[in-house]
Amino acid sequence: MVTAVSNSTSSAAATVATSSASAQAQQDRFLTLLVAQMKNQDPLNPMDNSQITTQMAQLSTVSGIEKLNATLDASTKAQAFQSVNMIGHNILAPGSSLNLSGGQAVAGVELPGAADTVQINISDANGALVKTINLGKQNQGVVPFKWDGTTDSGQVAPDGGYTFSVVGSLAGKSVAPVGLSVGLVQSVLMDQAGPALSVQGMGLVDLSQVRQIL
Q1: Which domain holds residue 155?
Q2: What does the pLDDT read at residue 5?
Q3: Are residues 139 and 112 in contact, defined by beta-carbon separation less than 8 angstroms?
């Protein structure tokens, strides 16, 4: 994984360096032409200073856009390389699904701030509440949790798909925790917006939505 990230970083740096050289070459050509134009201008009809300023501003804009595009392109390539390294790994991303397998299920909660109480409510495919898990007091950030498959009535829940919701409070006031589902990254798709992960049971997940790699 380290090698792939290192290679992507080097590729990104090379792309930006190439762009910088190209932009510099454009500036050099422009200045050469400008000096020649000024030397050969008609003394009775000299160039207007505003024209020179406008031309230089246009060059600066074009060069800036070229550098920006190259930087964005390099960044996208680096993200793509890093995304490929996630294939075969489980991730935590916003969701409400929970898969119980072999009497074990893992998911998570993202808290925007500290909370005095955090409660997980797990429901079956029919929407019936089967388990309540109290996580107690938690700090801001991502908090993974596990479910051993036992229900509130003491029975063992069958393996399969479940859903969960999260509620929390601080000093008696409700907070807004976000449920995080676990999914296996199967592949990486590229589009104009950048890389997206194809995650089992979750569909396409934008790279920015990944909260943790398990």
Answers
A1: 90-213
A2: 33
A3: no
